[in-house]
UniProtKB/TrEMBL annotation:
It holds the Pfam family zf-U11-48K. This is Protein D7. The keyword DNA repair does not apply. InterPro entries: TRM13/UPF0224_CHHC_Znf_dom, UPF0224_FAM112_RNA_Proc, Znf_C2H2_sf. Keywords: Metal-binding, Zinc, Zinc-finger. PROSITE patterns: ZF_CHHC_U11_48K. GO terms for molecular function: zinc ion binding. Residues 6-33 form the CHHC U11-48K-type domain.
Length: 93
């Protein structure tokens, strides 16, 4: 019984690699790859795919980034609270 998560090598589907070893394996395996060029996901460099648009629909790292970005937009666009003395929080004292 293994406690590690495994992934499939994007360059050779017969390679089942422990995820923590995937970056090193990809560099090695890419040298022997003779198929169509794969694009590198900018949200996780171990993701190598043919169709980036399709990949981004399912990529958990991309989806997490979008969620975080939405939160940041919500925080920056909120209205500052009004102080009890009647002055707006944005006006200097």
């Amino acid at each position: 019984m293994s406690y590690y998560e495994f992934g499939i090598c994007p360059y050779d589907k017969t390679h089942r690699i422990m995820l923590f070893r995937m970056p090193k394996h990809i560099v090695k395996c890419e040298k022997n790859y003779r198929g169509p060029p794969l694009k590198i996901c900018k949200y996780n460099a171990t993701h190598r795919v043919l169709d980036m648009e399709e990949h981004l629909k399912e990529c958990p790292y991309y989806l997490r980034t979008i969620d975080n970005h939405a939160v940041q937009i919500a925080l920056t666009s909120r209205i500052a609270p009004i102080q009890e003395d009647g002055n707006d929080a944005n006006t200097p004292l």
